[in-house]
Amino acid sequence: MPGYAKPVYFIFLVIATFGVAGGVLAYKRGRSIVLWCLLSMIFPIFLLVIWFQKPIKEVPGGFRQCAGCKEWIGWDAAVCKYCNASQPPA
Ligand SMILES: [Zn+2]
Q1: pTM
Q2: How is the chain split among helix, strand and coil, in percent rounded to 5?
Q3: How many CA atoms lie within 13 A of 86 on its CB side?
C-alpha cells in the first residue's frame, strides 16, 4: 500500500531521534557520546538527565566557564547568568 509506513519503522525513527539527541547533548558537555546515545535510546528519560548535567570541559559551540564565578554558561553568552559578569567574546 503506497504511502503507508509500518509502525515499526516509526518506532525505530523515534528511538534513533532519542539516541541522536542524547549524543548531541553529551557532545556539547564534553561527555561520552556513545554512552549517552545508547542510554537515551533505551531510556529516553536520560535525555532529561544529560540536559541538566554540567559540562566536564569546555566545548566550542557548547559551554564555557564564566571568567568570574566559574559557573558553566552558554558558549555565546555575553553576560554570565549567575553573576552578571560580562564575558570576553568566544
Ligand atoms: Zn559568572
Answers
A1: 0.81
A2: 45, 10, 45
A3: 2
The residue count for the chain: 90
- The x, y and z cell numbers of residue 56, run together, are 566536564
**How far away, in angstroms, is 63 Cα from ligand 1 center?**
13
Provide the 3-class DSSP secondary structure of residue 33: helix
Write the pLDDT tens digit of every residue in 20-50: 999 999 999 999 999 999 999 999 999 999 9
| Residue whose C-alpha is closest to residue 62's, from 32, 36, 29, 24 | 29
d(CA 4, CA 34): 32
Residues lying with their CB under 5 A of ligand 1, a single-atom ion:
66, 68-69, 80, 82-83, 85
> What are the structural domain ranges in the chain?
1-53, 61-90
**Å from CA of 76 to ligand 1 middle:** 14
